């Protein structure tokens, strides 16, 4: 079974016959190419065209992260699944104001459902739940995408306030969401987790015929795959935020797993390793899908979301965002 491989040390990635080798300062590690689904590079790593040729042949995506663990870009094999027909249909949905608004609202609807699901984990959060529900009805009346995103932003602020009350570990303080830079360990976890869910969703979209640059909630951009941002809105509270609560409240992570430089808080190598271990465990855990009548992993749920979107785009079946029933 193929798996994700994470490289935290600095060194060289190269090809050795039909295998991969990582040459670090401390040791040499052989990586069977047939066993790799994706490579995640956190250290300063060099590679050459022979190495890129073999990973391209085996359709391995390489995700790169900066010193603080935040995603900066990917190397992906030449696109083989992009469909001209589907790309045209995606663009038609984007150019139709009603269709774009429907899909954008659906992504926000799915995100809110999963935020409310987390808020309910503490009974005393009923006030925050009511505040979210009071605003939720407005998303269906929003006439423009910026207006819709503004309402979603207000709801997310309420959510993060409620989120602070879900943290039971006194070591971790969380007052508000700060991104650039993350000012405390909880914000560092949210930012790191959001980077990881983005690369996970990136890998899954490459298994479909969708064009990742044509989106509906986030404005399409030359510098990002904005459709991935649309879909991950649904999965951030479901996968990332619930995992963060597990790691903090279970005291799996401690303040020793973080470093601070110039008010920039980030996971150190040990913290990243812990997070990724439990993140992979979460992605690979399964639920019984009530429609497919079989077990589906959380990673598989992301791909299924893309397939549902494809059906809507080709006018086969109206898209409905994932709303967990388990």
List the helices and strands and how they pair.
Layout lengths: L2 E5 L3 E6 L2 E6 L3 E4 L4 E6 L3 E2 L2 H9 L3 E5 L5 E5 L8 H12 L1 H23 L6 H11 L8 H22 L18 H21 L20 H24 L8 E4 L2 E4 L1 H16 L1 E4 L4 E4 H16 L13
Parallel strand pairs: 1-5, 2-6, 5-7
Antiparallel strand pairs: 2-3, 3-4, 7-8, 9-10, 11-12
Helix pairs in contact: 3-4, 3-5, 3-7, 4-5, 6-7, 6-9, 7-8, 7-9
Characteristics:
326 residues, Ribosomal Protein L15, Chain: K, domain 2, Four Helix Bundle (Hemerythrin (Met), subunit A), 2 domains, 4-stranded mixed sheet
Give an overview of the whole structure:
This protein is α/β, with parallel strands linked by helices and 326 residues long. It has two domains: 3-75, Ribosomal Protein L15, Chain: K, domain 2; 84-313, Up-down Bundle (Four Helix Bundle (Hemerythrin (Met), subunit A)), CATH 1.20.120. Helices cover 47% and strands 17% of the residues. It contains nine helices and twelve strands. It has helices at residues 49-57, 84-95, 97-119, 126-136, 145-166, 185-205, 226-249, 269-284, 298-313; strands at residues 3-7, 11-16, 19-24, 28-31, 36-41, 45-46, 61-65, 71-75, 258-261, 264-267, 286-289, 294-297. Strands 1-5-7-8 form a four-stranded mixed beta sheet, with helices on one face. β7 and β8 (71-75) form a beta hairpin. α7 (226-249) crosses α8 (269-284). The protein is globular and about 60 Å long. 32% of the residues are buried.
């Amino acid at each position: 079974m193929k798996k994700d491989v994470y490289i935290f040390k600095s060194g060289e990635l190269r090809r050795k016959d039909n295998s991969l080798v990582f040459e670090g300062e401390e040791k040499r590690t052989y990586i069977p190419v047939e066993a790799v689904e994706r490579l995640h590079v956190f250290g300063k790593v060099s590679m050459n065209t022979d190495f890129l040729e073999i990973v391209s042949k085996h359709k391995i995506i390489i995700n790169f992260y900066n010193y603080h663990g935040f995603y900066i870009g990917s190397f992906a094999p030449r696109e083989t699944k992009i469909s001209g027909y589907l790309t045209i249909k995606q663009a038609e949905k984007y150019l139709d104001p009603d269709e774009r608004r429907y899909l954008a609202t659906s992504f926000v609807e799915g995100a809110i459902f999963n935020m409310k699901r987390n808020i309910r984990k503490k009974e005393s959060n009923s006030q925050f739940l009511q505040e979210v529900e009071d605003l939720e009805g407005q998303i269906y009346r929003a006439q423009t995408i910026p207006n819709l995103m503004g309402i979603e932003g207000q709801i997310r602020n309420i959510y993060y306030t409620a989120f602070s009350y879900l943290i039971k570990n006194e070591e971790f303080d969380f007052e508000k969401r700060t991104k650039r830079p993350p000012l405390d360990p909880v914000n560092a976890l949210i930012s790191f987790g959001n980077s990881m869910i983005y690369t996970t969703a990136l890998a899954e979209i490459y298994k479909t015929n969708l064009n990742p640059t044509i989106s509906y909630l986030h404005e399409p951009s030359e510098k990002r795959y904005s459709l991935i941002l649309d879909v991950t809105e649904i999965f951030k509270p479901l996968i990332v935020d619930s995992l963060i609560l597990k790691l903090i409240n279970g005291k799996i992570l401690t303040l020793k797993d973080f470093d601070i430089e110039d008010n920039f808080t980030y996971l150190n190598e040990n913290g990243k390793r812990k997070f990724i271990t439990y993140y992979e465990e979460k992605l690979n855990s399964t639920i019984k899908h009530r429609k497919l009548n079989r077990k589906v992993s959380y990673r598989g749920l992301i791909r299924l979301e893309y397939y549902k979107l494809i059906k809507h785009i080709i006018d086969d079946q109206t898209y409905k965002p994932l709303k967990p029933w388990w």
